[in-house]
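Changelog note: in this version the structure field was regenerated for every chain. One regenerated record is shown below for reference.
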Amino acid sequence: MVKIYQLYGIETAMQMLRPNARWEITNSVITKWEDYREKPTWEEIQATMDKIKAFEDSIDTVWTPAQIKEYTGQEK
């Protein structure tokens, strides 16, 4: 079974933590922050990503062979 994550990632975690904030991350460090709200810590970002991954892992998505090839480059 191939697992393809659609939501899991820093971008989704940041959108959930600070919607529409403008930011850049380099090597797990927020290097640019353009928002009046306090920037999240790397630990908060990781914890949110873990929750997103757990959510996606709980869903038995069925991909077509063409989708698997498209997203992974693998036949299956």
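Spot check on this record: The chain is about 40% helix and 15% strand. The mean pLDDT is 94.
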